[in-house]
From TrEMBL:
InterPro entries: Nudix_hydrolase, NUDIX_hydrolase-like_dom_sf, NUDIX_hydrolase_CS, NUDIX_hydrolase_dom
Keyword Chloroplast belongs to the record: no
The keyword Repressor is annotated on this UniProt entry: no
SUPFAM superfamilies: Nudix
Protein's name according to its UniProt entry: Nudix hydrolase domain-containing protein
Amino acid sequence: MPHSTSGVPAPANRPRVRRRTARLLVVDEADRVLLFRDSDLGLNPVPHWWMTPGGGVDPGESDLEAAVRELHEETGLAVDAGALFGPVATRRVVHGYSDVIVDQDEVFFGVRTTGFAPDSSGYTEEEAACIVATEWLTRDDVTAASEPVWPAELVMLWDHWEAMTGDPGLAGLALPDTEESTVPSEGPQPA
């Protein structure tokens, strides 16, 4: 069912922000990845998509430090920076939502853990309102998902991370610029 965008400002009239983020592929011993089911509450019906944990890099913080902090805030899992692998990939993505357009430079890290029940007590107010579920999904689950998975290349990143662990000389992926939106933007803006 299409989403009504009536009342949603045109791209030129929505605020546009630029940020750098650290994102995580959190994989458990059953080879499942932890994903959040997110939503855009400004649309009717409300669209949903699956995304990896992660968030903005604070001023003065490294990508790795942000990944460790975001992992703890969004899942309750506390790890040392040495537990993270990567960067597995980087990309520039535009996320157009009903209320904002976000130009985002993303750095992906991987972390292996035992399965756990994520703790959402560290969510921001916006995350608490928009994230409606957390699930551990297999590669087959991700591939068969009926809702979008962001990044769309998640299984490829997961496979590349595993290849990197066996080949220390293998570099992280530089993914092409892309757009993943609930309400399209006008494309990437100059950096």
